[in-house]
Amino acid sequence: MAALPVGGAGLSAMSRTAAASHPLCSTDDISEQLEELQLTLGEGPCMDAFVRGSAVLTPDLLTTELQDQWAVFAEAALEAGARAVFSLPLQKGAISPGVLDLYADIPTVLDAEELADALAFADLATLLLLDTRIDEAGAPTGGPMPDRGFEDLGAYRAEIDQASGILTVQLGVGIEEAFVRLRAYAYVQGRRLADVAADVVARRLRFSPDAEPDQDEEET
Description:
Structural class: alpha+beta
Largest sheet: 5 strands, antiparallel
Radius of gyration: 17 Å
Strand content: 15-25%
């Protein structure tokens, strides 16, 4: 990434049939927070880039339009230390396995050459991600992972899915709504989604149909 005016990068696997993105790896704490924020909030340039199938370039998160578009994400990303975010969908033919996010800590505009370099990085990331044989549900189908940051993807995804399944029973709702409730609780409590999912699976945390996310009680 040295050729680009960015501070770091994050990579998330995504699927049009799954309820969420799944952070795979990041280069630093800020990029890790950005991937987690978009997973937890369900909004941001990463989500939009994947849905549109085209790059979403945000030179300055303080822009009023962006503040309105991603009201919660923009503020949280600024607090994390990001000022500009560039999200590039990973694509190979009809296959779209995820999104590459780049960030800068100051307002930044990518010129034509820099954008071309960023897209080249996205192409490389696409090949890397497809080499791990990620299936349509966002989980690896087998084979070694090429980078240490990919090692826990299967367990990470499985635990979130398991927790969502448990909530469908506890709350009497469908799987998508269960995931939304899980995500909302993580955001309100300021916790990582994976940590909340682990508590649900371990029965340390139980959701009540009549309680708001911040009123759910942990079991003793």
